[in-house]
Design brief:
Structural class: mainly alpha
Shape: elongated
Number of strands: 0
Distance between the termini: 26 Å
Number of domains: 1
Number of helices: 5
Length: 91
């Protein structure tokens, strides 16, 4: 069992860290697009979402800022995991 975990640790880490991604992205998109509809999760809108992620499209909305900062942190950890994975498996 430990051998399996050791051999697949990166897959396990990516799956565990990625599970809540859809929830966090949905919350962020609902704030950015000002909707409560579940269909926002399947629509391919990206421009306003990217602007909202790296900019400040609602400067007076504290919930937006809080969610944006958390989502940026979450995605940053994901990026760090990928960079470590690629740097360790490059050889």
């Amino acid at each position: 069992m430990w051998s399996y975990i050791k051999d697949n640790i990166w897959l396990i880490l990516f799956v565990l860290w990625g599970l809540p991604l859809t929830h966090y992205r949905s919350k962020f998109r609902k704030i950015v697009y000002k909707t409560d509809s579940w269909t926002i999760n399947i629509k391919p809108f990206f421009i306003k979402e990217i602007r909202g992620l790296f900019g400040n499209i609602y400067p007076d909305n504290s919930e937006y800022k809080k969610q944006r900062n958390f989502y940026l942190f979450y995605l940053s950890v994901y990026l760090i995991l990928f960079l470590i994975y690629f740097s360790l498996t490059k050889n």
